[in-house]
Amino acid sequence: MGMPHLSFNSSRYSIDDIVKILIVIFLSSFSVWLISYYTLVIKKEIFYTHFIYIPAILSSFWWGKKGSINAFFLGFFLLMSDFYADVGKERFISHLSQLFIFFIVSILTGIISDERKEAEKKEREALKEREKFLEEAAHYFLNPIAIAKGYIEVLSCECASDKASHALNKIKEAIGRIEEVVKNTVEKGIIYESRGDISLKQKEKK
Fold first, then answer.
1. Cα 154 to Cα 173: distance, rounded to the nearest angstrom
2. Nearest CA to 70 among 33, 25, 134, 130?
3. Nearest 5°: CA angle at 76, between 72 and 77?
4. CA-to-CA distance for 54 and 25, rounded, in angstroms?
5. Sequential DSSP letters for 9-20
6. Per-residue b/e over 27-54, b at no fewer than 16 CB within 10 Å?
7. Distance (Å, rounded) from C-alpha 181 to C-alpha 167?
8. What's the average pLDDT block by block, 10 residues per block, for the chain (206 residues)?
């Protein structure tokens, strides 16, 4: 029906994509039937010139500028039907002016749809980059922190003096605080140390 070439390969298209294709095929076929019936059979002006907006706009909305091909197909079919049925110059010019607006609306819808999809793509890529950065940050921070904690435990067992034990406990506490900040930043995207101040940090972030 004048749409971009689409196959029903389940590995490429989801159920949602297949449903969209079937809807546009049905509406486009119904539009062709309306054009043929009212132009070639009963030869009367009827609402079909407005109905063809539905499959055309849906095609442009779902498939962008490529989907606007469907609008050109339906418009071309309408004009050819008028020409074949010899509907008269006045009606032919009327349809021609309507189709001009029809094509413009379809193309603009396709452009807006493509821009929306491009924006969504960039947003997804930004989210992936953010997740990748957080994973790398967690690895490069938490791995040496875990090693440091392990050595502190070893030193704690070997230190006999209270002063040395107190100093190691302070170091362990500081490392634990750093570890907590890193985990909270990676998991929640908010830089804070203890659970008690999360609401404050969330308000600051807003």
1. 15
2. 25
3. 120
4. 12
5. -TTTS-HHHHHH
6. bbeebbebbbebbeeeeeeeebbebbbe
7. 21
8. 48 81 92 82 66 89 90 87 76 81 90 92 88 78 79 72 75 80 75 55 49
Structure tokens, 187: 């998991």
Look at residue 86 and give its three-state secondary structure. coil
Cβ neighbours of residue 85 under 8 Å, at least 6 residues apart? 39, 40, 43
Identify the residue whose tokens are 């091909």. 69
* CB-based contact 1:71 (threshold 8 Å): no
> At CA 98, angle to CA 57 and CA 102, rounded to 5?
20
- Residue 88 backbone dihedrals phi, psi, to 5 degrees: 110, 155
**pLDDT the model gives residue 46:** 55
Q: What is the pLDDT of residue 8?
A: 46
CA-to-CA separations, 168 to 34, 156, 162, 176, 194, in angstroms, rounded: 85, 7, 10, 12, 21
Sign of CA dihedral 124, 130, 132, 135: negative
Calpha distance 206→203 (Å, rounded): 5
